[in-house]
Structures are given as structure tokens and as C-alpha cells.
Design brief:
267 residues, mainly alpha
Amino acid sequence: CGTCRACRQAEQGSFPDIHRLADDAEHRDIPVDTIRSLIDGAFLTRFGRMRLVLIERVERLNRASGNALLKLLEEPPDSMQFLCTVEQVDRLLPTIRSRLQRLRLREPRPEEQAGWWRQTIGCDPEQAELLAFIDDPTLVDGSEPTFDWQAVTEAWVRLAEGRGTPLAPLAPWLTTPRPVLARWLLRLWPVVARRHAGLPVAGLPRALAPSVDRLAAAYGIEQWLAVHTRLIRFAREAGHPLHPELSVEHLALDLVDPRLPRRIETP
């Protein structure tokens, strides 16, 4: 209803019967201490008849936090229900997967997402297109992206086109959290690859189209395949706390010419 005490608390994230472990771009895994806190609160007195635990991208569980959650899944308190989302099922721990019931949901098309933002939040068409393309669950309220997507994209364009020294345009990348940067670059890659191959691209924001066209013209098909491999490796390393600036600089040097590492390693 949106007006009663329970609804107001749920909207503020303080309703005691809803425990949400939200996706966190700053952390690669769900820490075991987070699960322990969840377990400690699971047996407290309920406000209503049921308690809901929402875990976003449950594949983020590492072995320690997964084993801790497994104990709660095997012996949950009365009237406790779990709702977990997963994007990469193959990364989900088998012991956790065996205790969950799978429900496949169709991902809404970009135009459907944009329409929802226009009708529900009142976003203008350009902002709705951008939010649908970014596809970040933390922006569901229609708020602005937490990073400068234009500057980050332009930096890649400058690297690909070879304008200036490789490290000159890196300031936007260095000020963007690496998991966020990796997610955005990987979001752009299939769109640019499709444009390079002459295939249609659905849901591409008009403000982003010029940059996508320039990127598509900057590399050949072999180079784009090498770019994808390099971006995946960067995404896997993005949660590592050591040498963040060196990691970004290494990525930039590789993207200037994606074939360069292979040429160096080949005798």
C-alpha cells in the first residue's frame, strides 16, 4: 500500500522481516561475516508472520560464506523464505544450488525497461534509454549513474584511436572503481562488436551511438576478439585489492593494440 508502517519501513530498508544482501560493485564476494550477521538475526522475534531473505547474485558466495549459508538453508527458522537471484549459474556452489528451486525469468527488453522508467519514475526518454542500457540494479529509482560514463567511454575511444600517449586519457578510469569500470567496458563490448559486424543493436542510447561507431571503426575483428579476452581477465582481477592503478594502466596499454601481448610472448 505504501502508507502503512510496514511498507514505509520496507521502502527505507529497515523492515525487520526483510533481509537484503544487495549486489555490491565494490566487493567481488559476499563476506562470511555478512552471512554470520544474517544467521544471528534470523532467530530474532519476527514483526509479522514471515521473514524474507533476498540475496542478489548469490553466486558471489565464496566457499566460507557459502558453507555458513548452507547451515541456515538446511535448518531455517519457521516461516523463513529465501529469494536468491543469479546471473551465472555455473558459478553457484553445487551445495547451494541443490537446495534452491530454479525459476527462470525472461529479461525485459531494453525498450520495456525504458518504458517502465518513463511511466514509473517519470524519467525523460534519453535518461530512460541510458538507464536501460547500463542495466544497474542500484539505479532502479532512476538516479544518475555513480560514474562518469561519458568520460570513461571517451577514454576508451581515445585509446582505440591512438590519440596521444596510452596513459594520457586514463584519469576517468583511475577514478572509477575497477568492478564498475569492468562491468561498463564489458557492457559496451558486445554492442560495439555487433556494430562492427554490421548487425542491428537494440536499445542503444542515442547519446552513446557516436562513441560506439568510433570504437567499431578502430579495431579489426581479430582485435575485437582479443579485446574481449582481455576485458574478461580484467573483470576477474577487478576485485583484487593490490595495485589498482597498475592494473588499469596495464589494461590501457593492452587495449592500444590488443595483439601486442601476443606478439611479445610469441618467439
